[in-house]
Amino acid sequence: MDQGLLRSYLATIYDLPSPNGIVRVSLDGDVANDPSALPDILTRTFAIVTAYNPRSMLLPRKVNDARHAVLRDLLVLGVYRVEACVGYEDDAESIWREPAWLVHGMDRDEAVAFGRVFRQNAVIYCRNARPEVIVCDPTCDDVGRSFVGHWRVRA
To answer: What is this structure's pTM?
Structure first.
């Protein structure tokens, strides 16, 4: 995977829903993070998937919204608990925001499969408080190859 693209995935800020309100995180935290100090949502198994902008190709909002709705419907039909979340850059001047779905309890291989079907470069997967960026696009790298991150809770 291109190092610039990987850095972008690791630095992206995700607003994740939790019972105590939004948890704002990125994957560029320190290695020494104590999992017991993390918000509960980050210690669970989940995936973050989207259908927006396949292979980083900007699509019209209407097309992105339709693809994203289809993804949600398929996830719900798969009996997953799905909640809306969003990823964005840590730059006050940036207008980039990409809606995504937080999919509770999803299996790693299934997250990759959804990423491939919707032509995503990668998906985010978390298990045991360990987030990873997993490649879904064979033109980026080997499908299933992962890059481990570390949670950074943001204010």
So the answer is: 0.96
